[in-house]
């Protein structure tokens, strides 16, 4: 009799804790529960990437080879352009970054 009562109390406590919502989640509004970044303009719309592209690699120059004793390395660069848009207010903006690489043309004696 006492065993059944203890087991039923334990089962009730487990059910309550399993379905309880944390207090911190109850106080969040809709904007705080989003996973993406919010628009700086309206602070409501979630930022969406509308376009992303890399340019072709372009020759930029030469430098002394850092890999071998003799020769030179060719320097190449390319740029990336990303366009973002807020679906709520329609605000658009662009982010441009660049990348550089060395192509070894050196040799050892």
Write the layout of secondary structure elements.
Blueprint: H1 2-19, H2 23-26, E1 48-54, E2 58-64, E3 70-85, E4 92-107
Antiparallel strand pairs: 1-3, 2-3, 3-4
How would you describe what is shown here?
The protein has helices spanning 2-19, 23-26; strands at residues 48-54, 58-64, 70-85, 92-107. The chain is α+β, with helices and mostly antiparallel strands and 109 residues long. The protein has one domain (2-107). Strands 1, 2, 3 and 4 form a four-stranded antiparallel sheet that branches. Strand 2 and strand 3 (70-85) form a beta hairpin. The longest helix is centred in the first third of the chain and has 18 residues, at 2-19. It is elongated, with a radius of gyration of 29 Å. The mean pLDDT is 83.
Q: Give the low-confidence spans.
A: none
- Judging from the principal axes of the Cα atoms, what is the shape? elongated
Structural domain tally: 1
Count every beta strand, where a strand is a DSSP E run of 2 or more residues: 4
Separation, N- and C-terminal Cα atoms? 92 Å
Major sheet, described briefly?
Answer: 4 strands, antiparallel
Q: How large a portion of the residues is in β-strands, by DSSP E?
A: 35-45%
Radius of gyration: 29 Å
